[in-house]
Amino acid sequence: MTQYLDIRCDCGALQGRVACSAHFFQNRVMCYCDDCQAFVNHLGHESSLNQYGGTDVYQVSASQVSIVSGHEHLKCLKVTPKGVHRWYASCCNAPIGNTIGPQWPLVGFISSVIVQDLDSIVGPIKGSVFCQFANQPVPKEVKGRWSHKRIVATMVIKLLVWRILGKAQPNPFYKAGKAVSKPHCLASDNT
């Protein structure tokens, strides 16, 4: 039986669901990259970061995701011109998650948008990535049991298999190969 996680922005106007049945079709990491930090800081949602500047990201294939209500609030931005698409709810500036593009089946949800307790349903964070961008040294016990290289290698394998299996569709963030909201680039604001 498929279990679902509920997705909800801070004000509840945007809601969705994520099917989380098979272990192979999910991943959970702590990301310390400077783009993740810039994204949530731009939205004024610093509470999504841990004390070291990390973002708890729950990764699934796009075909597992549906937006139930509030489609009109789903907006997209990029931190840099070639960066990933970062999605948020314009009604309350809540960060929703990240996608690479319409052809790639990955959706990385910011854990603060998931209603249920991820630890009890999905399990703990497997490891950390991009620790060099943390705002202070990340203690070994906080990093998790998987190394950066193991997490990246595992996700590359999953992405390739998900793509072969057609898990990029349906994708609620893209329609006819284009983002449902034209991405705004933060880097262009600073030039």
Key terms:
191 residues, Metal Binding Protein, Guanine Nucleotide Exchange Factor, Chain A, eight-stranded mixed sheet, three-stranded antiparallel sheet, 13 strands, globular
Your description of this structure?
The protein has helices at 34-42, 118-121, 140-143, 148-164, 186-189, and strands at residues 4-8, 15-19, 26-31, 55-61, 65-69, 74-78, 85-89, 94-99, 106-110, 127-129, 174-175, 178-179, 184-185. The chain is α+β, with helices and mostly antiparallel strands. The protein has a single domain (4-189), classed as Metal Binding Protein, Guanine Nucleotide Exchange Factor, Chain A, CATH 2.170.150. The strands form three sheets. Strands 10-3-4-9-8-7-6-13 form an eight-stranded mixed sheet. The longest helix has 17 residues, at 148-164. The chain is globular.
Brief sketch in words of this structure:
With 191 residues, the chain is α+β, with helices and mostly antiparallel strands. It has helices spanning 34-42, 118-121, 140-143, 148-164, 186-189; strands at residues 4-8, 15-19, 26-31, 55-61, 65-69, 74-78, 85-89, 94-99, 106-110, 127-129, 174-175, 178-179, 184-185. The chain has one domain: Metal Binding Protein, Guanine Nucleotide Exchange Factor, Chain A, CATH 2.170.150.
